[in-house]
Write a structure and sequence with these properties.
The strands form 2 sheets. Strands 1, 2, 3, 4, 5, 6 and 7 form a 7-stranded mixed sheet that branches. A hairpin with a 2-residue loop joins β1 and β2. The two termini are 33 Å apart. The chain is of the alpha/beta class. The longest helix is centred in the N-terminal third of the chain and has 11 residues.
Length: 226
């Protein structure tokens, strides 16, 4: 059962984390908002320059300036593990963060990766693994185990595009999912992920208050913009 102290959810084995070089101020606000009602084991902002008046409780770690989205993708895949000192990382962005702390479920920690559900693809290649199986759970706003974060570097998985895209969540949850699973990693099923986070307004998430969100579509429009 989840532990609460003074009405606050205790997640001592989870690091709340963000990596950004573009919307750093908004990202800091998203970290702060995610900390409402939750005590994480650690909170870290990975960026190219320490922000002025970084709030107490948020640790700064340096990385070279992320000049484009592919630089973000590369560093998230191969370097983010260097900055995480707990068993899990909860990754948030300026446009996706914790909004309903009371919707936390301990079963989220039974998986190495859990994010918002993907929609069903409208083509014959999106959201599919190497065997053509449709992958229903991904999204970069996600909870990931430290061992999953370390795996691409340890295993030497090459940084290759998937149908022209280098999206880091697609790299982990679709293109190379078979490698992660062969190494013992577990991905949350749609039935669990729909309670964790929402991005696409698919039928399965209707009427559910998620723990996190990503992007302000549909029912997510109610959440703050910084």
């Amino acid at each position: 059962m989840s532990e609460y102290r003074n009405g606050r959810l205790q997640l001592p084995n989870v690091t709340l984390a963000a990596m950004d070089s573009v919307k750093v101020k908004a990202t800091v606000k998203a970290l702060e908002y995610s900390m409402r009602g939750v005590d994480f084991g650690d909170v870290v902002l990975v960026t190219h320059r320490k922000p002025f008046a970084l709030p107490k409780g948020i640790r700064y770690r340096h990385i070279g300036k992320l000049k484009d989205i592919d630089a973000f993708n590369y560093n998230m895949i191969y370097r983010m593990h260097e900055f995480i000192e707990t068993d899990f990382m909860l990754l948030v962005h300026y446009d996706g963060f914790v909004v309903n702390p009371d919707m936390w479920r301990d079963e989220f920690l039974e998986y190495d990766y859990i994010g918002s559900p993907f929609p069903l693809p409208k083509d014959d290649f999106s959201y599919r693994d190497v065997n053509g199986n449709i992958c229903r759970v991904g999204n970069s706003v996600s909870l990931r185990s430290k061992r999953l974060l370390e795996y691409p570097t340890k295993a030497g998985i090459p940084f290759e595009a998937d149908h022209g895209f280098f999206n880091e969540d697609g790299f982990i949850c679709c293109k190379n999912r078979h490698l992660f699973e062969a190494a013992g990693m577990r991905y949350a099923p749609l039935e669990v992920a729909k309670y964790f986070g929402h991005e696409s307004m698919i039928p399965e998430v209707e009427g559910i208050r998620p723990f996190v969100f990503h992007k302000w579509a549909g029912s997510n429009a109610q959440y703050p913009r910084f």
